[in-house]
Design a protein that fits this description.
The complex is a heterodimer of chains A (about 280) and B (about 290). With about 280 residues, chain A is mostly helical. Chain A contains 13 helices and no strands. Helices cover about 75% and strands about 0% of the residues of chain A. The chains are: A mainly alpha (about 280), B mainly alpha (about 290). At the A-B interface, helix 1, helix 3, helix 4, helix 5 and helix 6 of A face helix 2, helix 4, helix 5, helix 6 and helix 8 of B.
Amino acid sequence: MTTAPAKAGWRFRQPSVIPGFGLTLGFSLAYLTLIILIPLSGLIWRSAALGWADFWAIATDRRTINALEISFGTAFFAAAVNVVFGTIVAWVLVRYSFPGRRIVDAMVDLPFALPTAVAGIALTTLYAPNGWLGSLLAPLGIKVAYTPLGIVIALIFIGLPFVVRTVQPIMEEIDKEVEEVAATLGANRFQTIARVLLPGLAPAIVTGFALAFARGVGEYGSVIFIAGNLPYKSEIAPLLIVIRLEEYNYAAATAIAAIMLALSFAMLLVINLVQTWSRKRYG
Amino acid sequence: MADPEIKSYAPRQESLSAAVTESRPAKAVLMIVSFAFLGIFLLLPLIVVFNEAFAKGLSDYTEALTSPDTRSAIYLTLLVAAISVPLNIVFGVSAAWAIAKFEFKGKAFLTTLIDLPFSVSPVISGLVYVLLFGAQGLLGAWLKAHGIVILFAVPGIVLATIFVTFPFVARELIPLMQEQGNGDEEAALSLGANGWQAFWYVTLPNVKWGLLYGVLLCNARAMGEFGAVSVVSGHIRGLTNTMPLHVEILYNEYNAAAAFAVASLLAGLALVTLVLKTLLEMRYGAEIAATRGH
């Protein structure tokens, strides 16, 4: 495309013969502002209006702290499990050919398509003490449903496609020659994977982890059925927000939501930095 | 790089390819681990849904689905999707046109803002509307004085659904339209088409499969959303209950068979979505943006 050499000075947009910039950008900004930005700033405004003392009292309430710990802890654990198994699943899908590969590949997206409430009641039925898997685990003394372990199970379900779908396209792009070079230089297969392939995949794996983690922290529908929802033990932060709302305690609901948002954004920021770093190092 | 000379080294190439893949036992272990993991975490829950739905026989199943409360939940779910999905299509197309066809300051920031709803908990997506329109909300008193009902009614459910499904169409179209560039539209314009004609006859046919892909995902989420809708709905049976909320109510009433019957409809919707999505990817993979997953 040939554009006229940019004139000196600040310009909001590059000149173009294509019409409709004002209309489409104007509409998009108006819609974005009305639906997303105003409501979200309402949340920030309300929590700022709380005052520091009130905010601190809610934030340091034992029940709030426990709920946040449970949400972030289970989401972290589930995302870690998904990193391991999601990477293996992606590898199998990319590298091996077997009958039904397309179907297995399509099935990975099930958690995106299945409504969370449906996943929630299905997992609960499966892991309840009399359920198909619950009855197998009960003799071993493992209780899943109505415990924090149940939350982890639900979050593994929700987060799996995030890891697979982030890692898979990067794996497809791996140049086989790199592996051939490693092999001809005397590396065994394990060394090739650990020292050559995995570092290249690291940024994608970290991204997948971050996406699964972020989704898990906020997840509600699939968790509340299986969690048992005992305060201080298996009550997640989003549920505590709902409980406070039902008590008409808008202040507490707002404060917890603001803390969740702040923590999630801080987390994403850290992960972004890690990603930039690993891209520089291995990219 | 099909160099004919390489063919004569076939045996050597074979030994090389053995060095760049795993040994047979390792392969078998990795595949078994994958299938077991996917079977336990994805397939079993899906089977449970249909198994429980038909556990009490076909007549109970049809009865659960034809009860007035279920019918009104189905109607509300369809209504909410029918309003929120088209609105997000208009937004998605419009945002993609502005972002993909033009270079302007703050574009990257705008793209980030569009993705914002994906990083917000669904419960918070509902909460923000309660804070705005609720009785103690910023606009609560004004709305009450004017007799406008948003919260615990259909408008609130539609708004919350729009919020959570906001990015789907836009994020599918933006990379696709960026990749296609402006050449086709510029040609159309230079041949005398006006802007609308260029959009209808050039751009839209170019992106139709990507658009359909985004709409499919948007619709699945719109019909299945639970957290955000649950916060703004008020759970009024027969009035503000969508299908996922109805599933929850039935389940909490220990009416598991009916809950799973309604859930089986939603699971069916999910399966249809997956099949259509896979078909789109197989047929038009190259025409759909490379951004898989979300």
